[in-house]
Amino acid sequence: MANTTQLEDFVTQVRRDILRQVHKVNSGHPGGSLGCAEFFTALYQEIMDYTTDFTMDGKNEDLFFLSNGHISPVFYSVLARSGFFPVDELNTFRLIDSRLQGHPTTHENLPGVRIASGSLGQGMSVAIGAAQTKKLNKDKHLVYSLHGDGELQEGQNWEAIMYAAGNQVDNLIATVDLNGQQIDGSTDRVLPLGNLKDKFEAFGWEVLEVENGNNITEVIQGLQNAKEKTGQGKPVCILLHTVMGNGVDFMMHTHEWHGKAPNDEQLEKALEQNPETLGDY
Amino acid sequence: MKKYIDTGKKDTRSGFGAGLEELGKKNENVVALCADLTGSLKMDAFKNNHPERFFQVGIAEANMIGMAAGMTIGGKIPFTGTFANFSTGRVYDQIRQSVAYSGKNVKICASHAGLTLGEDGATHQILEDLGLMKMLPGMTVINTCDYNQTKAATLAIAEHDGPVYLRFGRPKVANFTPEDQNFEIGKAVQLTEGNDVTIIATGHLVWEALQAAETLAEEGITAEVINIHTIKPLDADAILASVKKTGCVVTAEEHNYLGGLGESVARVLSTEHPSPQEFIATKDTFGESGTPEQLMEKYGLNAKSIVAASKKVMQRK
Known about the structure:
The complex is a heterodimer.
Chain A: H1 4-25, H2 30-35, H3 37-47, E1 63-66, H4 72-81, H5 123-136, E2 143-148, H6 156-166, E3 172-178, E4 181-182, E5 185-186, H7 187-190, H8 196-202, E6 206-210, H9 216-229, E7 236-241, H10 264-272
Parallel strand pairs in A: 1-2, 2-3, 3-7, 6-7
Antiparallel strand pairs in A: 4-5
Helix pairs in contact in A: 1-3, 1-4, 1-10, 3-4, 3-9, 5-6
Chain B: E1 10-11, H1 12-26, E2 30-34, H2 44-49, E3 54-56, H3 61-71, E4 77-83, H4 84-87, H5 92-101, E5 107-111, H6 129-134, E6 140-143, H7 147-159, E7 164-167, E8 172-173, E9 189-190, E10 197-201, H8 205-218, E11 223-227, E12 230-232, H9 236-246, E13 249-256, H10 261-272, E14 277-282, H11 292-298, H12 303-315
Parallel strand pairs in B: 2-3, 2-4, 4-5, 5-7, 6-7, 10-11, 10-13, 13-14
Antiparallel strand pairs in B: 1-8, 6-12, 9-11
């Protein structure tokens, strides 16, 4: 178990990785990635039981599925720094012949990725399928997934949410990144999601909220609470309140940095706010 | 000319159901998912005998395809079942990203394909599914012709590692291929020998092609009938060998001529051995209500049409 300072250092380095990846290729999605740095760090550094000796089948280990694939920079950074592939490979993000495609894929055999995502709304179904296979295999490990809040506008999610409750898929913890932003503006303006807690509960899910999803201690506690709710007949949802662009003052509380990379000057400012901790790639 | 005997009319979907049930006994990794059409897909035997491996997903095909992709992680071999329309067009992006691009070992099994679905009409009669599926990189596309072949194909695709689209239909049709056949994915089956015209058919049109060949034989025309059960990968060698001999070809399918078997055959011939070709297929149109026989007659998908197309293409040599 790492202490809080070590985990915060990890998060800071992940933020630097995100910023440097998207800056280098002048494309990618920094906003949502920055907002989820603590969640990925908690999952891969504290919560999940897994091996970096990657197999697609992932038997007898916890699994994670990223549904909102555009936040690949945070996924890649945390996978690399957790030992799935060399950290230096982050240099190849979005470049030709890279395993680090703009959106994550299994096609290039990047360790740690078990499904392609990018076209939104598909990850919850995949996670449910993997969870059902775990039950058939009498594998007690859990399946985790992450979804954007705007992504819940895709109808397939609600098919999946209905299925998981109706079939007691209680080995699944689906987290919604509730940052309130999407490409065209705030979710409230684009298409209001309403009260997501009420909605998930009405569908028969166990719902937990993490009020500050950018506080590593709170995120870990929230995930641990969620684990305790598994195995009781209900799928578990975490509503993770985050700030898009967290950790870079001029990127926070706006949708503007959803899919825009910083220029040289902006990168410098952003990195100043996130000093190097574990060493840049 | 070898005569093929109809051993009794049976629906291809029942061949799928029988194959799936046999897989249930033989392979404990086989799981089945269905979107509220268990009876129509003939999945009841599997459901009743292997309830723990049967997943009723309700009328939610997108979730079904995504779940099937997820279920492969951990070693299961999911077979999804619904109508061809809801197996393809409705869930194209789910198949594209979660199954094909992700390289998942999912078997998409589709009944009620084409016009022979009959009275329900065009909303359900998909004539575009072969094109949709064959365009996906890595997707194997199979369209079987009778009960026995559908059962054999169902067993065979479980042994193939990779995504498969298996297309079959609703009506009871002639059952004429051997019960004990060895189904080899991607390998065409030559049914008759001939020198004058090659007839390449898939699905329900294979039996019609055989009837056409008998009619042509009465007029002294020998037709080489090839059953292409696998649209992709296409058996180019078998096609080329036959067309090099006969010099012309008729393709026959229960599908739009845009994107179907005929275009795949044309691609092979145009690059390797340009030859006159006629297309027995729907001509960029939707279907409509009617009995299967009426529809196949109206849209020109029967033995009579194949005979006429054969004579026409021979004149173009």
